[in-house]
């Protein structure tokens, strides 16, 4: 599915996807999403509902949990719950803290399913020289490219980081960009 979505996006850069919701609540997508959430370091941390991935596996059962989640997504009754907020120290020993929102397992699975569907579409729009937070791209790859171009006469490197980007980004403008690529309402 991801390969096809990426291929279609590259083939038609102006394409707007109108029927992605079926991919999001597809049983295979939800299973991959749950596996990713359960394999994540934060899988043992409960959200406001008190459930962890292990609780789902041992008490509820993954198939039943995903069937219920799929039904709620399909019939439009799914609603994300508030996140559990914690303050954690920022890296580097500065003594500063940042807020961390901990979603419920169900919300994490839905987020992971959305990521599986949306990432190949938006990934196709990024420039090859962009390395930040992208699949199969690491800081080491950027450094290797700097070395490569540095030996061929290039002398400038641009490294940018927008402090608290998602705290200050214009969410209306961001969602307008998303709507340009995908239909965001479900009928």
Account of the 3D structure:
- The radius of gyration is 19 Å and the shape is globular.
- With 187 residues, the protein is mainly alpha-helical.
- It is built from 9 helices and 2 strands.
- It has helices at 2-11, 21-24, 27-38, 53-60, 62-75, 105-123, 139-150, 165-168, 171-181; strands at 84-89, 97-102.
Task: Quickly list its features.
single chain; 187 residues; two-stranded antiparallel ribbon; 2 strands; globular
Describe the SSE topology.
Layout: H1 2-11, H2 21-24, H3 27-38, H4 53-60, H5 62-75, E1 84-89, E2 97-102, H6 105-123, H7 139-150, H8 165-168, H9 171-181
Antiparallel strand pairs: 1-2
Helix pairs in contact: 1-6, 3-5, 3-6
Figure out the total of helices.
Answer: 9
**Uncertain spans, ≥5 residues at pLDDT below 50?**
none
In what range is the share of β-strand residues?
5-15%
Strand order of the largest sheet: 1-2
Helix content: 40-55%
Shape: globular
- State the distance separating the first and last CA atoms: 22 Å
Order of helices and strands: HHHHHEEHHHH
Tell me, rounded to a whole number, the average pLDDT: 88
